[in-house]
Amino acid sequence: MALWGGRFQKEMDQMVKEFNASIFFDQRMYNEDIDGSVAHVKMLSKCGIVSNEERDQIIAGLENIRKEIQDGEIQFRAEDEDIHMGIESRLIEEIGDVGKKLHTARSRNDQVQVDVRLYVKRRILEIREQLIHLENVILRQAEKYQDAVTVGFTHIQHAQPITVGFIFMAYFQMFKRDIERLDDCLERMDLCPLGSCALAGTTLPIDRHMTAEELGFRAPTENAMDSVSDRDYELEFLSAASISMMHISRWAEEFAWWNSSEFSFLEIDDSYCTGSSIMPQKKNPDMAELLRGKSGRVYGDLMQLLTVMKGTPLAYNKDFQEDKEGIFDAADTWFSCVRIFSGMLEKTEFRMDQIQKHLKQGFLNATDVAEHLAKQGIPFREAHNIVGRMVRCCEDKMKETGKDCQLEDLTDEDLSQVDSRLSKEMLGDIRIEACVGARNSFGGTSPSEVRRQIQAGKRWLDEAEADYE
Q1: Model confidence over 57-82: pLDDT tens digits?
Q2: How far apart are alpha carbons 48 and 328 in whole angstroms?
Q3: 155 given a catalytic annotation
Q4: Which end of the chain is more exposed for a tag (fewer CB within 10 A), N or C?
Q5: What's the count of helices (H) and strands (E) in the chain, helices before strands?
Q6: pTM of the shown model
Q7: Which of 260, 276, 336, 448 is catalytic?
Q8: Helices within 195-323 (DSSP H only)
Q9: pLDDT of 187-230, one tens digit each?
Q10: Catalytic residue among 155, 261, 271, 277
Q11: Which residue in 266, 330, 107, 77 sits closest to 202, CA to CA?
């Protein structure tokens, strides 16, 4: 009979046992469950609810069970129901009736909450460490390519010239926000629910502040009913995971098309690619594509839990058992994707020879010419129109001659036909490299400004690393 089976006359149907059980996926929280139980029985002892001798027996029994699980000596079954009942049942088997005192002044409702909070806290720190590593890779690559000019796109069309380092620093900001979101999540969830019991607290003289301190939380939760029914921190974690996976997916998408024959902007290391089973020549960016695809998996974990929570009245409901697989899956997926992406990023080389060819397409310096005319006193909207006519002049010449013609190739005669005020001398240096170098507004793409962004990034990263040393 189950530990809760006193009022029942029948055993659960075997099919129902298997449907009801979470032990096959929540057993990964055995360390958290045992840590929570050790802290709880220490508190019970201090408050005079169990004796010191009983406390020591229970802790020794729990530590022995921990070792047995680690050594693979315990095989859980559907009858164990969940990790909490599985461990408690074995404790009673090992030390007898003393083990039955462990569950005093707690419920599985607050027990599972402390387990999951401890688990999520641990995974946040592990994922945060991987994101910090990714940011370090980004900074190194940004320094390497801080002067390398490439094509900037809007609407997947050539837009303006930028540096490769500038792209890296754009993504640095995205992953910086991911780390900050994890820090925010950790701050809000760093409260201990243990001792809230089923939903209303307990009549026993417990010390919840002690258990919070024992388990490394900054304080106990304020309201017992909210404590056992709250899953906001899980949703916040899944939201942070989804946003971060979206960032990975966006860059992975760019890697996939930058790697294509049409672009050939970069060379992904062989160790992060696969071949074709039929086409011998293929080198496929499968890791980039997998990273892009796995974002949908994490989005699904978030939507699943949002859907579970939307119709659950206070306080605890069995629906909440459905939170764990999504949390486990998202944490595992996010962690592995950041690791894979960091490695791929570090071993990718940009093909500047190929990029150079693309710099001559799309009139990348058009905006710079318009801004230059605005500096000469021509209203920007008029300057915009003039440059548009210059582009059309280039396109007409290419049709006539079959040869490439960029804005800097227009002669004084061509320019005067577009507008009588124009001349090559008036336009000045409108080469692509000069245009990039001149974009030194705060946050801009000039190499000097990218260097400033890199230094600012290093300072922020030093502080972020120091926060959790």
Answers
A1: 999 999 999 999 999 999 999 988 99
A2: 37
A3: yes
A4: C
A5: 19, 6
A6: 0.93
A7: 276
A8: 208-214, 224-229, 232-258, 286-309
A9: 999 999 999 999 999 999 999 999 999 999 999 999 999 999 99
A10: 155
A11: 107
